[in-house]
Task: inverse folding
């Protein structure tokens, strides 16, 4: 299963799913799927928007161990 750090960084910043989804411009459902890894291939645009909303870079969130 695909792993990322969206949830970790979102919680560190005290954001809930709804707040982050609104910042990114995606649905809460899609964000939830990204977090749990059931949507393993988000577009680079979505990855960049998520990273920007969390104040991180794409590699930190999507490609680090």
Result:
């Amino acid at each position: 299963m695909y792993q990322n750090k969206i949830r970790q960084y979102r919680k560190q910043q005290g954001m809930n799913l709804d707040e982050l989804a609104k910042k990114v411009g995606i649905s809460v459902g899609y964000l939830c799927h990204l977090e749990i890894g059931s949507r393993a291939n988000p577009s680079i645009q979505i990855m960049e928007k998520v990273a920007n909303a969390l104040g991180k870079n794409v590699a930190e969130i999507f490609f680090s161990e």
User: Anything to note?
Assistant: The chain has a mean pLDDT of 92. The chain has one domain: 6-62. The first helix runs from residue 6 to 12. Residues 6-62 form a domain with the 434 Repressor (Amino-terminal Domain) fold (CATH 1.10.260.40).
